[in-house]
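Service request form, structural biology core

Requester: graduate student, group of Dr. S.
Request type: structure prediction, single chain
Budget code: on file
Notes: please return the result as structure tokens.

Sequence provided:
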Amino acid sequence: MMRRGGLGVVLAAVGALVAARATADPDVGAVTPTHADHAGTPESTPHPTSESNSNARFDAPPPGSYALPVIDQIAQHALLGISGLREPLLTIAPGELAVVSFVYLSCDEACPLSTALLHQLDRALAQDAKLARRVELVTVSFDPGRDTPQAMAELRERMAPKGRWRFLTAKDEASLRPVLADFGQDAISIPGGKNGPDALRHVLKLFLVDGSGAVRQIYSTGFLDLRLVMADLKTLLPSLP
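Core staff response, request fulfilled:
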């Protein structure tokens, strides 16, 4: 059974985006960021915007007008899928891209924003068959002790992906540690006190990875913007073999 606190915040964040996008262009939108280095109380909610919205913090550059050089290289890793069986972290081929997000389900601050952005991206990709065929979304829990394959399966069911969106966890912290180290994703356990569960302090990051395992972009606080991610996808994909 999934814990209600984190899931409720995730669903509220996604619901706000879905409701607002009912009358908006599916290819544009922004998520108002919160503090990414966190372990506490929600401080903001996501709000999609249109390209003409003056509240947007920046305008996404036109696709193809810039380059995204290699930032880092990620090795192959295997984690647990929603079936409980081991499967590759990435299942993309040369010429494809993945957007990877690390979250934990009892997080009530930045993680729901990350999940909401992937939900928004999943819906936007569904409107573009050429992009959708070449892009995979991956949500990885870095709290394997509590986020079981069953819990990740329940999250997947609630998100109802329209495209290639996979949900992974790990057998234990030891098997997850090399993955986090490879990506440079921090996750520090914070004791929850006498009556509360432990929290995980981390910096919110989403990674854009190509089929060779090269990291081409890292999104964090201030850049959780669907328009920017879509522009990056449209910039990179034509240049990939």
